[in-house]
Design goal:
Elements: E1 6-9, H1 15-52, H2 63-101, H3 108-115, H4 123-134, H5 142-169, H6 181-209, E2 213-215, E3 218-221
Antiparallel strand pairs: 1-3, 2-3
Helix pairs in contact: 1-2, 1-6, 2-6, 5-6
């Protein structure tokens, strides 16, 4: 370490955690798209066939549906798995984004905001907005940020309502799950806007660190005193 050099460490912006959010969101939308495609191509007929077998295909007549049932089960596991991955990646990113503003920020409020029923309809978006304000954004960007944040949260609530309320109460929703193009479109919009909020906040934190950091997680300052010349050396600018 050079004379007078001081190293101050801080929590760096969660760039890798943000990338994980992008990847898992894309995987979730793709898996849901595959499920919707299967529903349109085979779901209604397969539901009728399974009903005829009492939900338990047996014998030679049931062999025709075994492959379709297996494909459906795999698609359902993919949708569930990618949804869990999105939740884990997003919570990880949010915890690290809060710590990028304040190293002492505890992960507890993030868990409470997402897991407490009723509270999780409002608290997460308020928490994310608090992180954005804590990153000291430039003046004039508040309106754009609020529009992006509101769009994401409303589309997410709409997707949640369609899956948990509309489908169970809609008698016309045929097939195995009833999930169709409206749910897919709403989910894709929510994923896109969610990625937009993550990107905006991560970029803001990275820009705030850039002028001060010589390398990730480090702020370097140097003593204004010039180094002492070695014995017998000639000072720069003096000859003869």
């Amino acid at each position: 370490m050079a004379r007078g050099e001081i190293i101050v460490r801080y929590a760096s912006p969660p760039t890798r955690a943000a990338s994980a959010v992008y990847v898992t969101l894309a995987a979730q939308v793709l898996s849901l798209g595959a499920l919707v495609t299967f529903e349109h191509a085979r779901g209604r007929d397969l539901a009728v066939q399974l009903a005829a077998f009492g939900g338990r295909p047996q014998g030679a007549d049931a062999e025709a549906v075994v492959g379709a049932v297996t494909a459906f089960a795999v698609l359902m596991m993919l949708v569930a798995g990618t949804s869990i991955a999105v939740a884990a990646a997003y919570v990880t990113w949010l915890v690290r984004a809060r710590q990028a503003n304040d190293r002492s920020a505890a992960p507890g409020p993030v868990a409470v905001a997402w897991l407490v029923p009723g509270l999780n309809l409002v608290a997460p978006v308020v928490l994310v907005d608090g992180v954005w304000r804590g990153a000291r954004p430039p003046a004039g960007r508040r309106g754009r940020w609020l529009a992006l944040l509101a769009g994401w949260w409303l589309s997410w609530l709409a997707t949640l309502a369609m899956v948990t309320i509309r489908l169970p109460l809609d008698p016309s929703a045929g097939g195995l799950t009833g999930v169709g193009l409206p749910e897919l479109a709403c989910s894709a919009v929510a994923a896109l806007l969610c990625a937009g909020t993550v990107r905006e906040l991560t970029r803001l934190q990275r820009a705030a660190r850039a002028p001060r950091a010589a390398e990730p997680g480090t702020v370097r300052t140097f003593s204004p005193q010039p180094p002492h010349p070695a014995p017998g050396s000639t000072p720069i600018g003096r000859t003869g």
